[in-house]
Amino acid sequence: MSNKECLLEVKNLRVEFGKGKQKFVAVNDVSFNIYKGETFGLVGESGSGKTTIGRAIIRINPAASGDIIYNGQKISGKIDKELDSQVTRKIQMIFQDPMASLNERAKVDYIVSEGLYNLKNYGSEEGRKKKVEQALLDVGLLPEFASRFPHEFSGGQRQRIGIARVLVMEPELVIADEPISALDVSIRAQVINLLSDLQKKKGLTYLFIAHDLSVVRFISDRIAVIYKGNIVELAESEKLFANPLHPYTKSLLSAIPTPNPNVERNKIIEVYEPKKSHFDYDSNRPKWVEIEPEHYILANDRELEGYKKIMGR
Ligand SMILES: Nc1ncnc2c1ncn2[C@@H]1O[C@H](COP(=O)(O)OP(=O)(O)OP(=O)(O)O)[C@@H](O)[C@H]1O
Question: Domain ABC transporter spans what residues (predicted)?
Answer without folding.
Answer: 8-253
